[in-house]
Amino acid sequence: MTRSVTRLITTPEDHRIARLAAAAIGLALIDAAIPLPLPGVKPGLSNIVTLIVLARYGWSTAAWVCVLRVIAGGVLLGQLLSPGFFMSLTGALFSLLVLAGAGRLPRRWFGPVSWSILAAFAHIGGQLLLARLWLIPHNGLFYLMPIFAVAALAFGIINGLIAARLLASPSFMNTGAHHA
Amino acid sequence: MQWISLLRPGDWLVAVLGTVLCAASFPLAWQGGSADKAVVRRGGEVFAELDLSRNRRIEVPGPLGTTTITVDRRRVRVVSDPGPHQYCVRQGWLERAGEIAICAPNEVSVQIVGGKETYDSLSY
Fold first, then answer.
1. pLDDT tens across A53-105, in order?
2. What is the pLDDT of residues A136-149, one digit of tens each?
3. Interfacial A residues in 145-174 facing B (CB < 8 Å)
């Protein structure tokens, strides 16, 4: 092997983002493997990682982890630049936008569950918007809105609770998250 | 309960608001679509209002004879009409709000209403 001429200088922050993104990608693959009756309804398990990162390291790290997960997940699932990929990306960007505001709410009152619910609604809102504008330009799409809304609420609460649980358990945060 | 203790006061508020949003989305999404109907007029007066979600066929008596109108898969059309030119029959299926078929000689018209009306009327 020839020695690499170019050398990337990486910071501990980069390593942390890479580790966390890897965990999120793993969960995204599990997510894709879970069969669900309706296209578009997914648990979004990898968002648990986004929530934990947001709580511990702040919004910009969370945004990196989230977008890296969408892109790498797209590569691994073979749907990079496909409509499904853009749906994921739009959902992720809308969620991050809402999380930028939600993360500023007083922590005493609003925790990961609030963030998770708000982000889930933003996620499905953004996706419905993209689908209506681009993929299915017909108002019949909004017929499915109640189903998506209920799914967003349910999975939002579940993911938020899991994230809150993990954040509250010191053993996981000291070991698991750092070696995940 | 260990899980319940993870919820902060604001989380309850957000969850309740989310539930309200979900509950509100049902009538918003499902009532608007089913409100679409076709109005059948005879001699300028409303003869019948047809729900587009239910397939059916009605016969409207007019001065020249009977005009038959049918609803099928959210569309409506004039199947037969005693008028001489058959314009309203040849117009075919009406599916969008605002579309109208007029059988002038027999004084019968059918128009789709509801949803967002894009045009006051369409002529062919």
1. 999 999 999 999 999 999 999 999 999 999 999 999 999 999 999 999 999 99
2. 887 778 888 999 99
3. 145-146, 149-150, 152-153, 156-157, 160-161, 164-165, 168
- pTM higher than the cut 0.95: no
Domain presence at residue A58: yes
User: What total of structural domains would you count in chain A?
Assistant: 1
Angle at A135 between CA B71 and CA B94, to 5 degrees: 20
Q: Which of B22, B36, B52, B95 is the best substitution to test chain A (most A C-beta atoms within 10 A)?
A: B22
Domain membership of residue A3 (yes or no) is: no
Any chain A CB within 8 A of the CB of B33? yes
Q: Which chain A residues are Cβ-neighbours of B25 within 8 angstroms?
A: 145-146, 149
ipTM of the complex: 0.87
Are residues B44 and B1 located together in one domain of the fold?
no
CB < 8 Å to B10, chain A: 105-106, 109-111, 114
Q: How many CB atoms lie within 10 A of CB A62?
A: 27
- Compute the mean pLDDT over every residue in chain A, rounded to the nearest whole number: 90
CA angle A100, A42, A146 (to 5 degrees): 85
Tokens of A17: 């983002």
- Under 8 Å between Cβ of B40 and B108: yes
> How high is the mean pLDDT of chain B?
85
